[in-house]
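agent: user wants the structure for Transglycosylase SLT domain-containing protein from Xylanibacter ruminicola. delegating to structure tool.
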Amino acid sequence: MVGLRYLILWLLLFMGSTTVFSTRYQKVFGSDWTSAARYVADHHAEWQQEFAPFGVDSRLAEAIVFPELIRYSMWQDEIERAAVNGLYVTKGSQGADFSIGRFQMKPSFAEQVEQAWNRSSLSKQYGFVFNLQPNNQARRSRIRRLSTMQGQCRYLAIFILLQQQRHPQLSRLSHKDQVRFLATAYNRSFTASYSQIRKMQHHRHYHTDVIKTRSTRLYCYADIAVAYYNQI
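agent: tool returned. relaying tokens verbatim.
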């Protein structure tokens, strides 16, 4: 009987802390959180169709990029997209490597994903590879993919598959810990080792300011992703 009471108390504390954890970030980001959550809800069915062929859980994928949706700025995206369209196509990532689209993906990130995909057994399994030639045509095609929601969903799905293949330990983690790990890898380093990503999981680098200053408040990207995942 005593053991049952402790179990019930533990469950209440756990559920309560999860709710507080999610609510805290929801209050911090206010209308930006609400708008991002609404955007996900409005596009969930559409995105699910893109994730399904890769066998990727749409809830997992959405949580990974949710912090990017919070800080997405349409006007800033248009400026950065124009710069990428001009400078990246002609000079590569050294010319321009701005984050674009709702999921805020950089051309250099797409290049890393494509290179890893072409080297992996997954490319044979799914029957396609990317054009990795260092020329304007290949870079223009990459920007076209990054400029569409369909393209960004596919890059995200491929990123998840590559991480799962590279780090088989992920399958032994809880769903929330998988979100935490993958969100960290997405935000911090695509190529880092398993132990390196685990060490970075609680680092605070995320902010929503247009320009980072001394007064900018920093948050943990993975914490926000997990907080959102707890609500869906």
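agent: one observation worth passing along. The chain has one domain: 2-229.
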